[in-house]
Design a protein that fits this description.
By secondary structure, this protein is α/β, with parallel strands linked by helices. The protein has seven helices and eight strands. The chain has one domain: Rossmann fold (3-Layer(aba) Sandwich), CATH 3.40.50.1000. β6, α6 and β7 form a beta-alpha-beta unit.
């Protein structure tokens, strides 16, 4: 059993805990919104119509398997080195899919809390609220717009899981996938002994 208090970490779901190949489309969409349409304010579209929600569900079904690093995450939790919390800003009509996925991959019990966006809030605002509520040491997110919004807004260190389309963008804590972010956390644990 660990004598040190575990590091409290929040994990985004799509693109962090679950590998999602469609997350690469975020960069072109973000580029289009800012540079072509001139939209500066961060906001995320909410699919209101039934057919839009079906399309949105299909996109999120692409979170097929656990991200590289899940075994390391499981080990860190079992060794009580970290306390893991899942935060997903998925809209409420996707909640059932999330729970089925976690059960299927035997991951539901890993997380001390599972925080769902039940009121369909804007994702960046929902995540900020949950981070402030739980006072995480670290929050791991893959959406650069959300990372940029959250970075420097409190004491929580924001880790970014980037993809190949936006890998050139700068952030002080950026990693290609979950395992690399966890390796950095392990190093931090070892140097603080």
């Amino acid at each position: 059993m660990s004598m040190r208090k575990p590091i409290k970490i929040g994990f985004d779901f799509d693109g962090v805990v679950a590998y999602n190949p469609f997350r690469v489309i975020r960069f072109p969409i973000s580029f289009l919104k800012r540079n072509i349409l001139g939209i500066e304010k961060l906001s995320f579209w909410y699919p209101k119509k039934r057919w839009q929600q079906i399309f949105w569900r299909i996109l999120h079904e692409s979170s097929i398997f656990p991200a590289k690093g899940i075994d390391t995450l499981r080990q860190l939790i079992e060794e009580e080195k970290i306390e893991a919390h899942l935060i997903t800003a998925r809209y409420s009509f996707l909640d059932d899919h999330l729970y089925k996925w976690l059960e299927k991959h035997n991951l539901k019990k890993l997380f001390k809390t599972i925080n769902l966006n039940k009121n369909n809030e804007q994702p960046h605002l929902f995540k900020e609220k949950i981070i402030n509520k739980h006072k995480f040491d670290i929050f791991i997110e893959d959406n650069l717009d959300i990372v940029t919004y959250l970075h420097g807004r409190g004491k929580t260190r924001i880790y970014w899981i980037y993809n190949f389309l936006d890998q050139y963008r700068q952030h002080p804590f950026k990693y290609p996938y979950l395992e690399k972010a966890l390796e950095e956390i392990i190093k931090r644990l070892e140097t603080s002994v």
